[in-house]
Amino acid sequence: xxxxxxxxxxxxxxxxxxxxxxxxxxxxxxxxxxxxxxxxxxxxxxxxxxxxxxxxxxxxxxxxxxxxxxxxxxxxxxxxxxxxxxxxxxxxxxxxxxxxxxxxxxxxxxxxxxxxxxxxxxxxxxxxxxxxxxxxxxxxxxxxxxxxxxxxxxxxxxxxxxxxxxxxxx
Length: 170
What we know:
By secondary structure, the chain is of the alpha+beta class. The chain has one helix at residues 2-32; strands at residues 40-44, 53-56, 59-69, 78-85, 91-97, 101-105, 108-117, 121-126, 132-136, 150-156, 159-167.
C-alpha cells in the first residue's frame, strides 16, 4: 500500500513541476516581453497579403512581399513572406507551409497632438485619454512635424510609433 501511495506522490510531483514550468514561461512572456494573449490573434498563411500585419520572431511587421512555391508532386506549398518591422524598420523573412497558422498582432490606431518636437523625439498627447508620452520621430516625417499638428499613432504589444501626420491641429 505504501508503494502505491509513493508512486502517486511522484506522479503528482511531476505534474506540478510541468505546471510550474508552464507558469514560469507564461510569466516570462507576459512580464518581460510585454506580450499578452489579447495582443495576438491567429490567421491562416493563405489569408496573408501584402500590407497586412504579422508577427515574426515576436515583432509586429507589415508584409511587403509574398512568394508561393509548390515543390514536387507530393510536397506542400511553401510561402516566403518578406516584411518590415513597424517599430524598428528592419526587414525580416518567414518561410512556412501555406496550411500553417501565423500570429497576427492586434494594432490600434489613435490620434495624438504634438506637444513638442526635439531633434529625434516628439512628445505627444493622446486626444482620447489626454495621456502624454514620447515617441521617436521616423526619418521620413521629420520635416512635416510641427508643434500643434495631429498625428496618427500605431500601438501594439506595448510599443508606439508615429505612422503619419494628419495636419494642423489648432
